[in-house]
Amino acid sequence: MRFKKLSLEQKNRYYGLYFILPWFVGFLFLFMIPLLSSFRYSLSNLQVTNEGFSLKFIGLSNYREALLSHESYVRILTESVMNIAVNTPLIIIFSLFFAVLLNQKFRGRVLARAIFFLPVILASGIIASIENGDLMQSVVRSANDSTGGGLSVMKNLELTVMLVESGVNITFVEYLTGAVSRIYEIVSHSGVQILIFLAGLQSISPSLYEAAKIEGSTGYEAFWKITFPMISPLILTNLVYTIIDSFISDDTSRLVVDTAFKSFDFGLSAAMAWMYFAVIALVLWITTSIVSRKVFYQD
Amino acid sequence: MKTENAMQQRQAREERMHRIASTAYWVEFAKKWLWVVVRFVLIFGISFVIIYPILLKLSIAFKSMDDLYDSTVIWVPKAFTLDNFKLVFKAMNYPRVLLNTLFLSSAVMLLQTITCVLAGYGFARVKFKGSGLLFGAVIFTILVPANTIMIPLYLNFKNFDLFGVIELISGKPFNLINSYWPFIISAILGMGVKTGLYVYIFRQFFKGIPREIEEAAYVDGAGYFSTFSRVILPNAIPSMVTVMLFSFVWQWNDSFFTNMYLNEPKIMSSMMASSGYAIATYLSGGEQAATASYVQDPFFMSMMMNTSVLMAILPLIILYVFVQRHFVESVERSGLVG
């Protein structure tokens, strides 16, 4: 016999492939092939006709157009990357902090959690984009500011002056106060991250804290020596999630969509999307390679 | 006996008095309460920041035209009115849009969950050369932004064909744009909104289930597929609930694919993007000549926008009130972590 009879276990291993099959078909036809043809489109001039579309190979000129002669692509792309660089650390720190808070026992915890996860539902996609440019809300907001809400703006200024005078680096101060004024943006993007962190905090065994307490550690020490290392793999997860999440709704992807479906320049749009993807991949690669060195794995 | 008790009590009381008198006790006490107060302020403040836009929308939605121009009205309108709701209800064709959205979101939710649960189980159990690479492909689908593959997908669905079979039968490929088929097909094949994430969640979960459970089932004579459906699947219900919730909500809110595949605003999220336009056409085309002049008024349009956004998220909020406990608990149990 040339073919050995497979043992039950070996056979079962291959049954697993049937389970993956639907996903794999989708991966092939709705992901891999579109990905490759998108790359092909980015190198050619695509004309949509009645019977479909026609392709004409034009080399790198789409890329050249996006980088050198498009009026806003480079600016918007750098802005998006800057936004990601500025917001991601804030979101991670904020969500970790509040996950720790929400993990403590206090009255009304259920309600507080329910409110904190509302952004998971509400602040995705279209709703957020409508909110930004809304006239009526800004009117009410400014009315609020003039009647008494203005206090917060004043405070912010005073805080800035105080921090600068006490010798803190001015860019850092601006970053901090900028974070305070963008609090809604940050809160609305950290719903899922809080959820993930909270789940991670629940899975840390309480006996670790007990042992630390017997050894006489304070809560502060326990956080840095137990909570932080135990949760560090999730910091990596959340970092990746935050960066990916910011793709969906930023200006660059809007520009890419508009170029495709408003000016019907499919080739240019594909080129833009590919360059965007390359930049994002680079950012992801750099951050994960830095952070994963510090991550602590228990096993 | 009695005297002993009394002695003990007195001793305890003295000890307590002694403790209260010491400074260390008071420092501890103050520290504890300070933390409670700080925590309350922080949580209350951020909760307010989160709820604020919803409150604002509520307040705006109940305002009438007079309140809009009354500078003394900021939060509470003088005359509560449901006119805005009625108008949006008619202009947006609300019941039909709601039904459409419910249908699409639930269909996508079910199909996606089934495909992802299967794929996740497969990835957790299958082991051969290159299976790691295959799972790397899942991560890759999460990482690639959707707009990179947007154009080929669009053209695919515009000229939909199965290896030329359809063209052979009906003469030309189907145009699936502006129907629900692109969503259904992507859901069945596990390539919808953020589907890679769901596969990842399920795979992590199934990795945590010991193989011994399956082996016990095999010994008892169950086949591979019946083991999956009768032993493994019931265990996976918590993580399935998580994935279903996420998939429902994200499909409901998704504007990227809905705007791409649907030309007409049939679905809540694409309806919202064009609700201003829809209301304007409704008002100027309808018989209400008196209100037609309002269309030019940006304040009025903004009020309508706010009302329509509120009405679009209202079903989600109602749903959330009922399932939010599962939302938190299920993520904790689902093995998203680990």
What labels describe this entry?
heterodimer; A: 299 residues; mainly alpha; two-stranded antiparallel ribbon; 15 helices; 2 strands; 79% helix; globular; B: 338 residues; MetI-like fold; 18 helices; 75% helix; 0% strand
Secondary structure layout plus pairing:
The complex is a heterodimer of chains A (299) and B (338).
Chain A: H1 8-42, E1 44-49, E2 52-57, H2 61-69, H3 73-103, H4 109-116, H5 118-122, H6 126-132, H7 135-149, H8 151-165, H9 170-181, H10 183-188, H11 191-202, H12 206-214, H13 219-249, H14 251-261, H15 266-294
Helix pairs in contact in A: 1-15, 2-15, 3-11, 3-13, 8-9, 11-13, 13-15, 14-15
Chain B: H1 2-21, H2 23-61, H3 65-69, H4 83-91, H5 94-125, H6 131-143, H7 150-158, H8 165-170, H9 181-188, H10 195-207, H11 211-219, H12 224-235, H13 237-253, H14 256-261, H15 268-273, H16 275-285, H17 289-292, H18 298-333
Report on the architecture of this protein.
The complex is a heterodimer of chains A (299) and B (338). Chain A has 299 residues and is mostly helical. In chain A, 79% of the residues lie in helices and 4% in strands. Chain A is built from 15 helices and 2 strands. Chain A has helices at 8-42, 61-69, 73-103, 109-116, 118-122, 126-132, 135-149, 151-165, 170-181, 183-188, 191-202, 206-214, 219-249, 251-261, 266-294; strands spanning 44-49, 52-57. A two-stranded antiparallel ribbon of chain A has the order 1-2. Chain A is globular, with a radius of gyration of 25 Å. By secondary structure, chain B is mainly alpha-helical. In chain B, helix 2 (23-61) crosses helix 18 (298-333), helix 5 crosses helix 10 (195-207) and helix 5 packs across helix 13 (237-253). The mean pLDDT of chain B is 78. At the A-B interface, helix 1, helix 3, helix 4, helix 5 and helix 6 of A face helix 2, helix 5, helix 6, helix 7 and helix 9 of B.
